[in-house]
Every structure is written in structure tokens, then in C-alpha cells.
Amino acid sequence: xxxxxxxxxxxxxxxxHAAADRLRDAGHQVHVPDLFxxxxxxxxxxxxxxxxxxxxxxxxxxxxxxxxxxxxxxxxYAGFSLGGSIAQNLALGDEKARGLLLLHGTSDxxxxxxxxxxxxxxxxxxxxxxxxxxxxxxxxxxxxxxxADVEIYRYPGxxxxxxxxxxxxxxxxxxDQTWRIALGFLATL
Length: 189
Hints:
Distance between the termini: 8 Å
Strand order of the largest sheet: 2-1-3-4-5-6
Strand content: 15-25%
Largest sheet: 6 strands, parallel
Low-confidence stretches: none
Number of strands: 6
Order of helices and strands: EHEHHEHEEHEH
Structural class: alpha/beta
CATH topology: Rossmann fold
Radius of gyration: 15 Å
CATH superfamily: Alpha/Beta hydrolase fold, catalytic domain
CATH class: Alpha Beta
Helix content: 40-55%
């Protein structure tokens, strides 16, 4: 599978490279664009400031530019938190998308978005301050209306970015379970 993996608001850090290596070890080709162009953050607040400085439109433009050379191959879009929201936007706009793997993040869904049974898997902490229960219920229904085939996995007690071993949110058990389920999902595409 050809996967486009987008980083979180922390930027392209070692955990993202480690995740890409895990996917490569499972036989996938993985592209990991640096949407922050070398900048990283030590805190979510610093990352939010970087995101605001660059701007949402520019981040999406950079993501589209990174994906364009590979989109004819039928990409699986994936991302962590902010990267998940970017991956979602690209997948819903790419008629050749093969799947969408969201780790810790979702996005608003543009009115009139449609896909043809796009396989979507979301892994999220429970509770998650950025992905509340009410938001996820609405998101799930909207994604189903687009034609997506959605699975949601929730991890009680885990922190928001629980798959990143370098952050306080890290939860080894939840991360291991997430990767086991996600690799199974990718193997079916």
C-alpha cells in the first residue's frame, strides 16, 4: 500500500519517522512530508503557534503538493492529530484514495463531500479534549453520509497523542493495540 503520513502540530518528529518505519516494515511504501519545513514544537501551544503562523490554507497547499506525485497510485491518507485532519481533507477530495487512517484527529467535513465506500479507521483517546464525544458522534454521522465506511476505536484513559513515546500522553498498551488494529486495516485495502 502507498501511504501518505502527515505529522501532528508538533511537526515532523522522531515518533512520526518511527511510525513510518513500522508501516514500511509491514510492507507499505510511506511518504512523510514535512509541512512545517523543518520546524518542530516542544509543546502543543508552540505547535499551535506554528500552525497559525503558516496558516491552514498553506498547510493544505503543502499537503496537496506533497501528495500530487503519488495520487495516481491510489494513496491511503494517514495522519496524527492535525495531520489526521489534513489527511481527511485530502482523502475526501481524492477520488482515487484507497483509505483513510486517522490517529488522534478529525476535521470538519465540507458540505456535499462524497466518496464511494472509502474505508476509514479512527483511533482516539477516550475522553479526548480535542475530539469530544459530541463532536465524534456528529463527525461519524457526517462521514457515513459522505459514503465512507467508518470504524472508530476509543482508548479509555489514554492521552490525546498516546502513540508518541516522547510525549506525556504516551500509553504503551493503547499504542500497541492501535498499531495492531491499524496494520490489520491496512492489510485489507
